[in-house]
Amino acid sequence: MSDEPFSTSVVSRIRSFDGETPLQVLARQGDIPRTDMTSLERFPYYTAFPFAWYVVCFSDELAAGEVRPVRLLARDLVLWRGHDGEAHVMDAYCPHLGANLAIGGRVEGNDLVCPYHWWRWNGDGANTHIPYSDRTNGRARVHAYPVIERNGFVLFWYHPDPRVEPLWDIPQLDAYFTDDWTEFKPADWTVRCPWQELAENAPDYIHLRTVHGAATVPEVEDLGFDRYTSRLRARVDFSTPRGPTTGRIDTDGYGPGFGIARFSGIIDTIFFAATTPIDWEHTWSLKAYKVHKLGSDEESLARTHRVGEALICDLRKQMAEDNVIFDNKIHVPSPALADADGPILRFRRWASQFYAPGDPHAAGRLSAMNPPAEPQEQR
Ligand code: FES
Ligand SMILES: [Fe+2]
């Protein structure tokens, strides 16, 4: 098996399907049958959520003083912003007597006040005030996740070992947040499989033709997996009414939770992709485009808007098509591969580093995965 990027000549030998494929019909109709297998049967490798920066919301969705309940990583979280503008993500349950801080809690100054007995917690999760006591409880602690805001997203750092500080950063790309670029054009989905299965779809170039009906697939110039980041540099032919145009797709992944792709050629766009686990078999996929404005006059802005809408429309179609596969696929630990398949195994070797054991929420999965060994019968 070769790890090298496939040759386009092999791909171009795949015959085009005449009209919609049965998968595309299912995707359009939207009523996809779903497997009854459990998530443990489908994705047994998932013994902890991968450590990563995960998006929890857009920055402008969380005002100062706002408190919101969030369910991600199979746990209840509280998302809030102090009046100093700092965003916080913490475990939702109050160490005093277990109230959910996100349901009825309120922000006072830069503290979160529990709805039950009004204990106050700062952004580090330390107790700062007990209204009926002269002293605070110095031992009590709400787990606070490190939070950053980059490129209009609020992200929190998850590692099963809470002592592990963030291992990488995500760059802030100010150049795309000027008047020359549109606001975000967002779309999101709940996908019924873990991050890894979605991510494997990216080095699986063949599916662009077989699932999405692309006329051509990217010609890979460089594909790299560095310590915690991944990189793809590729040329791609876009079909336009005036014939094919050569453009580029350049993507950078920052761990399992966040990636940035730049498309150039016809029109410059930047695309942010966030994948955050909801539980052991569901992933929240949030995507947002920004389009380089074609001009500042009304006609150019209207054209830019139409391009952005077309991109989102195409993205929705592709996600619906992928979901027919995602909703029902299993993980094949030793896949049967062809020479021209994309670098799936190289991707898997890189991905495996993000599963660090130790998440108490995974205990049930781990014990279920280690049943007593059964004798292997000889044949
Ligand atoms: S449960 Fe939170 S203050 Fe009592
Ligand atoms: Fe896809």
Give a short summary of the structure.
This protein has helices at 8-11, 22-29, 39-42, 195-200, 206-210, 298-326, 344-352, 363-369; strands at residues 52-58, 67-72, 75-81, 87-91, 106-108, 111-113, 120-121, 127-129, 144-145, 147-150, 153-158, 185-191, 219-225, 229-240, 243-254, 258-264, 269-277, 283-291.
Biggest β-sheet strands, sense, barrel: 7 strands, antiparallel
| Structural class category | alpha+beta
Number of helices: 8
Portion in strands? 25-35%
Bound molecules: FE2/S2 (inorganic) cluster, fe (ii) ion
Which percent bin holds the helix content?
10-25%
The end-to-end distance, rounded to whole angstroms, is 29 Å
Number of strands: 18
Q: Can you identify the CATH superfamily of the largest domain?
A: Naphthalene 1,2-dioxygenase Alpha Subunit, Chain A, domain 1
CATH class category label of the largest domain:
Alpha Beta
The H/E string reads HHHEEEEEEEEEEEEHHEEEEEEHHH
Quote the CATH topology of the largest domain: Naphthalene 1,2-dioxygenase Alpha Subunit, Chain A, domain 1
Radius of gyration, Cα only, in angstroms? Answer: 23 Å
Strand order, largest beta sheet: 12-18-17-16-15-14-13
Low-pLDDT windows of residues: 1-12, 370-379
CATH architecture of the largest domain: Alpha-Beta Complex
Number of domains: 2
Give the overall pLDDT as a whole number: 88
Mass-distribution shape? globular
Please tell me about this protein's structure.
- This protein has helices spanning 8-11, 22-29, 39-42, 195-200, 206-210, 298-326, 344-352, 363-369; strands at 52-58, 67-72, 75-81, 87-91, 106-108, 111-113, 120-121, 127-129, 144-145, 147-150, 153-158, 185-191, 219-225, 229-240, 243-254, 258-264, 269-277, 283-291.
- It has 379 residues and is α+β, with helices and mostly antiparallel strands.
- The protein has 2 domains: 8-32 and 173-349, Naphthalene 1,2-dioxygenase Alpha Subunit, Chain A, domain 1 (Alpha-Beta Complex); 52-158, 3-layer Sandwich (Rieske Iron-sulfur Protein).
- FE2/S2 (inorganic) cluster is lined by residues 94, 96-99, 114, 116-117, 119.
